[in-house]
Amino acid sequence: MLKAGRVKALGAMSGTSLDGVDVALIETDGEQIFGFGATGYRPYSADERAVLRAALGKWPGDDLDRARTVVENAHVAALSTIEGAEIIGFHGQTLAHDPRGRGTHQLGDGAVLAQQLGLPVVWDFRSADVRLGGEGAPLAPFFHHACARYIGATEPVSFLNLGGVGNLTWIDPRHTRPEEPGALLAFDTGPANAPINDLVQKRLGLDCDHDGALARRGRVENGALELFLDDPWFYRMPPKSLDRDAFSDMIGLVCELSDADAAATLTAMAAAAVFRGIEHCPSPPARVLVTGGGRRNPVMMQMLGAALDCPVLPVEDVGLDGDMLEAQAFAYLAVRVARGLPTSCTATTGVRAAVGGGEISRPR
Ligand SMILES: Nc1ncnc2c1ncn2[C@@H]1O[C@H](COP(=O)(O)OP(=O)(O)OP(=O)(O)O)[C@@H](O)[C@H]1O
Ligand SMILES: CC(=O)N[C@H]1[C@@H]2OC[C@@H](O2)[C@@H](O)[C@@H]1O[C@H](C)C(=O)O
């Protein structure tokens, strides 16, 4: 049993951009955040990344031995650099996500980590939600609610994560519990950095359009942008979630364009997807707080700022760490699971009733 009151929880996240493992310590009772602690990052080597990339789209039962070893070893290496944790939240590496079909698949065995690290590990956060009819994603929204209260927000605010995929959480912080009706609305907005990374990787051998350098020199092709926004995804009501590669053929929309115009157009698509998403919110947020790697792309941030009617700010402006928010989220959610508190609800994943997702493995 986890001791009552505040605990130090360590979270680990390996996101859809396959860059590496983020780890972060937080102090929480599963409801309130009391403070943030040490953080760490363990990048995947080029070889490891290639193994993971080759495993994308695979399901349990497929041959995943090499990829599993990469994920588990990188997590043990990252997590063992941080001392003082009483419990670990381990997200794993999403390989496939098809909540209305085959389910959702995060690679990595929490029991192996518990054994190697000597601590209880909460993992497989998404499956229970999917079994109850939910999207299984996004799961950070309950943590975003706690963050909104931690920063003292008093009116509706949104958190926007710009990772490989984008996801948005609208929060009314006047509700004390995240599962209360009216407290939250959350959903994936659409593709964010993944198509830009794929484009510059394929054409130029680069990892990303660093600082938006390429997009800054390009011109947005409005015809391609309009075709993109015609996708039925944008007319679907939230909650809704995406697989990393769900929009991978959008690169086809920019294949005739120059490198700079293609990058500018894909960046505009990521921003327009957010703009469309905000229209689903119950009321306009007073500010949009941006987390994830996309907040470092000034072109994407400028496009968002121009399209939205409220300040669009990196989460650092309110004292949070935009590189670590997802790792912190899974630390927070681990404590909620251990305490029997829900981690998602109808407004965040469409699940039939609020549910606590996650399996707990203890060292033998
Ligand atoms: N300086 C920068 N300029 C432009 N883009 C950047 C910069 N820094 C990071 N990025 C983009 O952010 C991406 C990483 O974002 P992040 O770490 O939030 O993704 P993730 O957590 O793997 O994804 P997800 O949240 O979808 O699981 C990089 O792959 C890159 O595309
Ligand atoms: C299935 C899956 O891993 N989804 C990720 C992905 O990356 C961003 C977006 O799509 C979000 O829905 C989710 O991650 C964050 C951490 C979440 O669950 O909130």
Automatic annotation (TrEMBL):
ATP binds at residues 15-22. One of its GO terms (biological process) is amino sugar metabolic process. It catalyses: 1,6-anhydro-N-acetyl-beta-muramate + ATP + H2O = N-acetyl-D-muramate 6-phosphate + ADP + H(+). Keywords: ATP-binding, Carbohydrate metabolism, Kinase, Nucleotide-binding, Transferase. GO terms for molecular function: ATP binding; kinase activity; phosphotransferase activity, alcohol group as acceptor. SUPFAM superfamilies: Actin-like ATPase domain (SSF53067). Pathway: Cell wall biogenesis; peptidoglycan recycling; Amino-sugar metabolism; 1,6-anhydro-N-acetylmuramate degradation. It is an enzyme of class 2 (transferase). Its EC number is 2.7.1.170. Coiled coil: none annotated. It comes from the Bacteria. The keyword Kinase applies. NCBIfam families: PRK09585.1-5. HAMAP family: AnhMurNAc_kinase. Catalyzes the specific phosphorylation of 1,6-anhydro-N-acetylmuramic acid (anhMurNAc) with the simultaneous cleavage of the 1,6-anhydro ring, generating MurNAc-6-P. Is required for the utilization of anhMurNAc either imported from the medium or derived from its own cell wall murein, and thus plays a role in cell wall recycling. Belongs to the anhydro-N-acetylmuramic acid kinase family. This is Anhydro-N-acetylmuramic acid kinase. It comes from Aquicoccus porphyridii.
